[in-house]
Amino acid sequence: NHNLEEEVVEYNGNFKRNTLKNNPNIFYTVYEVTDLTNGMKYIGKHKTNNLNDGYMGSGRLLKQNQELKGIENFTKRILHLCKNEQHMAEMERLEIEKVKAYDNDMYYNLM
Fold first, then answer.
1. Can you say whether the dihedral through the CA atoms of 10, 14, 20, 26 is positive or negative?
2. What confidence tens digit (pLDDT) does each residue in 23-52 have?
3. Cys staple from 82: which of 15, 28, 60, 61, with CB 3.0 to 4.6 Å?
C-alpha cells in the first residue's frame, strides 16, 4: 500500500514545492493552530499559492477566540504538505481522528 505521508517534502523544517503535484504553484496543507493563552488547538486544511499568506484557520469557534484574544496569541504550523485536494482532505481527517478533535475539549474543531 502507498503511504500518503511519503508525499510530504520537508527540508530543515521548511516545506518545498512538491514536484509531483499537477500545479507546482499550489500548496495543499493540513495545519494546526494553537491558542497561546490556553493551549487549545485547531486542525484544518488550506489550499494556497503562498505558504505565508497569513491564513490562520476558519473554524467558527476558533475565529471567535482569535477576534476576542487577538491573532497575535495564535500560532500555526503545517503538519502535512499534500499532493492534491483529495490527499489533503484525507490527511486532515486522519489528524482529526488521531486526537479525537471533535470530542476533545482541548480542540476548537466542531462537527
1. positive
2. 668 999 999 999 999 999 999 999 999 998
3. 28
